[in-house]
Request: fold
Amino acid sequence: MKFETINEMVEVITYFHNKQMQPIRFRWRDRAYHISKVNGVWHNVVGRESEYHFHVATKESGTFELIYNTGGFVWKIGRVCVDD
Reply:
């Protein structure tokens, strides 16, 4: 498994339940992706801001790392899994 760093802003639709955030769909490069599974979640503190990382699998193609930054209320794709 190989990852390519992207770091591009994306639009994300998120579901909140019991104080938990779960992305369900995102749009990247004019294409919609429906999240079929969240494989992992982790959290980083960057200065005064927090970043929440979601490793997700999509119905359309592949796996992605989505990152939510609490300081700017911004979502981005950190990395994408690419085939060798």
About this structure: The longest strand covers residues 31-46. The mean pLDDT is 93. The CA atoms of residues 4 and 16 lie 29 Å apart. The chain has one domain: 2-82.
